[in-house]
Amino acid sequence: MSATALIAGTGALPRLLAGVISGDWVLCEMEGFPSSVPGIEPVRFRVERLVPFLDGLVDRGIGRVIFAGAMRRPRLDPELFDARTATLVPRLLQAMQSGDDATLREVIAIFEDWDLEVVGADQIDPDLVPGPGVLTGNPTNADAADADRAAAIVAALGSVDIGQGAVVAQGLCLAVEALPGTDAMLEFAALHQGLRPNPDGARGVVFKAPKPGQDRRIDLPSIGPETVKRAAAAGLAGIAWEAGGVLLLDRAATLAEAEARGLFLWAR
Amino acid sequence: MSATALIAGTGALPRLLAGVISGDWVLCEMEGFPSSVPGIEPVRFRVERLVPFLDGLVDRGIGRVIFAGAMRRPRLDPELFDARTATLVPRLLQAMQSGDDATLREVIAIFEDWDLEVVGADQIDPDLVPGPGVLTGNPTNADAADADRAAAIVAALGSVDIGQGAVVAQGLCLAVEALPGTDAMLEFAALHQGLRPNPDGARGVVFKAPKPGQDRRIDLPSIGPETVKRAAAAGLAGIAWEAGGVLLLDRAATLAEAEARGLFLWAR
């Protein structure tokens, strides 16, 4: 089996994967964006020198690549480009202008041009991406209706390539995810939770899903203990998500947090 | 000319319209939701007694109705329904389950069943709903691109019957309007304005539009001096909106505020 490159951004996922990857592997980080993986010296790369980096991976016998964790678009320094990476720029710029999904698809395509197989986190650890089922708690019919409505909203947002989440209570949309992310959305929902028409009615659901048509090997939305804490602070009844399309980070801690706070966790 | 009923909710619009309606008119308010129109004793109504209210309007010689200002969905007390209003409940409930637009369309249809003509605010004062043009400032090409992207997002949100606004900076969506409204969205954008990738690049645009297919006689989105203040606090370059589809409340004060803070106002 060939070796694996873990291209690590921020967040808990790179650390979780580092603990379970089998076989030889190397940690890679974008310069200026250190990952949370402790105790391993990373290979650092810059987008401006992507071709030498890819050549280097192949030279090390890497055959498989996993992208894990959040990466922001770096600012590019025109003086740092090598000649071969420069020829990729038109391809990347065109993709970037079509949105995040297009950018990620193009990045995957470039890695594949080097015969590197790009795999998703679920191929390393299937437990990270739960299939259908209620993991804890008891969603009511009203919760299911709120989850349905939130799922429709997230699907509509996906068509314009933004957001992977929404908060719905009693059929009304309290918050929608945008660039600031899930935690910011839940903070906003907490601030405005008093808008629920019936204070004794359904408390509401946060729903997460990948964008329609998104390549599921990169940038799956994720849920973890912090999501549960913030959903509880927003007074919600639970967290629902698209089964097979969302990373459950730190399953034990997330379940414990949800049980302690009386929230349901539901992969639909 | 028959008399007019101004069905007034909260916000500045009812007061503005009260100053310019010609001919005889009466002020109507939903019980528990006082309007901002000073010095006039309103006719108060409850949804549970809608039929007697409609009969009363006809008896007073009302032929024209304007809905103005924000109204929340009231909580309904089953004991207060009269028999005839009760027969309308299935119609209203079915519409309410299909979202706000459907509810408003059904409310209009019910008023029309009583031969009451429902008119929009622009029929009272065309200046309230500006046609195409830049009212102040100079939107750049980058601002136009941000406004285009925001318009696409708002259109997508409209398909699931939520939101009438979005904030986009440098092509990235910082915030999306949901139930808490425009001011809350701009506050959220202000909180997260540091996410703009290029601090020296385009500052971003808030865009507002009615929902696609929305009946433009009720519930048009609106812009006023407060919108300008909050857009400025979020560091935005200006405010853009769909020409003919957004109420400009208090035009003089809004323009003065925008000029003082260097924001553009653009009906597209």
Shape of chain A: elongated
CATH architecture assignment of the largest domain in chain A: 3-Layer(aba) Sandwich
User: Pairing-aware structural class of the strands and helices of chain A?
Assistant: alpha/beta
Widest sheet, order of strands of chain A: 6-13-11-9-7-8
Largest interface: A-B, 30 and 30 residues
- Could you state the CATH homologous superfamily of the largest domain in chain A? LpxI C-terminal catalytic domain
CATH top-level class of the largest domain in chain A: Alpha Beta
Describe the structure.
The structure is a homodimer of 268-residue chains. With 268 residues, the first copy, chain A, is of the alpha/beta class. Chain A has two domains: 3-123, Rossmann fold (3-Layer(aba) Sandwich); 129-267, LpxI C-terminal catalytic domain (Cytidine Deaminase, domain 2, 3-Layer(aba) Sandwich). Helices cover 36% and strands 21% of the residues of chain A. Chain A is built from ten helices and 13 strands. In chain A, strands 6-13-11-9-7-8 form a six-stranded mixed β-sheet. In chain A, helix 9 (225-233) runs parallel beside helix 10 (251-261). The model of chain A has no long low-confidence stretch (mean pLDDT 92). The interface between A and B is medium-sized, with 30 and 30 residues.
Summarize the structure.
Two copies of one chain form a homodimer. Chain A has about 270 residues and is of the alpha/beta class.
How are the secondary structure elements laid out?
Two copies of one chain form a homodimer.
Chain A: E1 3-8, H1 13-18, E2 25-30, E3 43-45, H2 50-59, E4 62-68, H3 83-86, H4 89-97, H5 100-113, E5 117-119, H6 121-124, E6 133-136, H7 141-158, E7 165-169, E8 172-176, H8 181-191, E9 205-208, E10 222-223, H9 225-233, E11 238-241, E12 247-248, H10 251-261, E13 264-267
Parallel strand pairs in A: 1-2, 1-4, 2-3, 4-5, 9-11, 10-12, 11-13
Antiparallel strand pairs in A: 6-13, 7-8, 7-9
Helix pairs in contact in A: 4-5, 8-9, 9-10
